[in-house]
Amino acid sequence: MSSKDWLEKDFYAVLGVDKSASSDDIKKAYRKLARESHPDHNPDDPVAEERFKAASEAYNVLSDDKRRREYDEMRTLFGSGAFRRNARGAGGGVPFDVSDLFGGGAGGGDRRFGGFNPSDLFGSMFSGGGGGGPARPRGPARGRDVEAEVALDFPDAVRGVTLPLTLRAPGVCDTCHGDGAKPGTRPVTCAQCHGSGMVTRNQGSFSFAEPCRNCQGVGTIVEEKCPECRGTGGVTKTRTLNVRFPAGVADGQKIRLAGRGEPGERGGPAGDLFVHVKVRPDDLFGRSGDDLTLTVPITFAEATLGTDLRVPTLDGAVTLRVPPGTPGGRVLRARGKGVVRRDGQAGDLLVTLDVVVPARLSDEARAALEEFAANTPPAAREHLDARVRRIS
Predict the structure, then answer these.
(1) Nearest C-alpha neighbor of 139 from the set 68, 233, 62, 61
(2) Residue 258 needs a FRET pair 20 to 30 A away by CA distance; which of 21, 103, 241, 319 works?
(3) What pLDDT, on the 0 to 100 scale, is given for residue 280?
(4) Which residues are in the CR-type domain (predicted)?
(5) In this predicted structure, what is the pLDDT of residue 138?
(6) How wide is the angle at C-alpha 224 spanned by C-alphas 136 and 227, nearest 5°?
């Protein structure tokens, strides 16, 4: 259940009881709805299933005295319009954005309520309303993440490689070194929030913290701006980074370089750089997980009589034994000639044998092959011929 559900859903209406209903009345109402809308009694009825889920959700809150009290207090507080703010600071009152308060239910808090812990509402968000303390310093905002794309040759992706990556993207201003102030000066502490980046606003008998508008939540003010970056602390420039691509990096994989993205405003932490990897296909080799694949043609004579086959790898060549009577499509394995894994072990090279049938034969070769066919036992086709005779 997300935090917004506590404000947007009327659990009393879902169960069909008054707000003053006793615990017994709530239990009776829930049991009646549960029996009527239970999926076992209403198979393939999505409407009944949704009613059952809604009733269970409402009963889960209203059957617990503590959570019911918190639910009532919250809906009373927000329903009274006590928390409204003006767009751009003046005129046209609009409802307080609940997602600003709860952060969309992400991170921390009670998992039962989508990351929001109702019991912390008055203690952590409001001062003067029961608990609370000084506003948490906000500080300069983190820089945005930057993305780039690099194409690697197949052997480099398998072995691993370090390549220079040239980017034209936001970077730290070399003139002010990221603080946004003119050389010889420094940002000063904001007089309104005293460097915390947050200020407290009163709303009736309550008060809550919000980012300081005077310094935009940074906590400092640049009185004399850097002429190069105009007070932002960052400029767009060309920079070159050496990026290490680990052995076995795959096509479509992302490499994350922490702190190498766009710098934060006025000295804030930098974002990350994400490098998208594109691997160019190879003329000979393919890849299946940690194994490399290779298809090698052999003659009919080699498949029949057997041979020692010399095949390439990314590190040279190896010899594989083709046993006599090897059929086309058989896979031979060269161990340890594949992709090196993180634990230091390597995959294998899988060699698929492709028996090549010649399109043209010399008279001597044809005569020899006809003699071979005449002396070849037909046992291999006896089973097939028997099936044909039964069908006929």
Answers:
(1) 233
(2) 103
(3) 94
(4) 160-238
(5) 55
(6) 115
CA distance 391 to 210: 85
At residue 11, the 3 state secondary structure works out as: helix
Give binding residues for Zn(2+) as ranges.
Answer: 173, 176, 190, 193, 212, 215, 226, 229
SS3 383: helix
Percent helix, percent strand, percent coil in the chain, to nearest 5: 30, 30, 40
Residue 93 neighbours by CB under 8 Å, 6+ apart: 84, 85, 86
Q: How far apart are CA 291 and CA 335, in angstroms?
A: 9
Q: Are 261 and 146 in contact (CB under 8 A)?
A: yes
Closest CA to 143 of 235, 34, 7, 29: 235
Q: Does residue 32 surpass a pLDDT of 70?
A: yes
**pLDDT for residue 155 is more than 90:** yes
pTM over 0.70: no
With both helix axes pointing from N to C terminus, report the angle between 65-79 and 46-62 in degrees, rounded to the nearest 10.
100
Helix (H, G, I), strand (E, B) or coil at 62: helix
Instruction: Set out the domains of the chain in order of their start, with CATH numbers.
Output: 5-127 (1.10.287.110), 146-279 (2.10.230.10), 286-374 (2.60.260.20)
Catalogue the long-range contacts made by 288-292 (C-beta closer than 8 Å, 24 or more residues apart): 288/350, 289/339, 289/347, 290/248, 290/338, 290/339, 290/341, 290/346, 290/347, 291/338, 291/339, 291/347, 291/348, 291/349, 291/350, 292/158, 292/337, 292/338, 292/339, 292/347, 292/348, 292/349, 292/350
Could you identify the residue written with the tokens 């019911």? 68
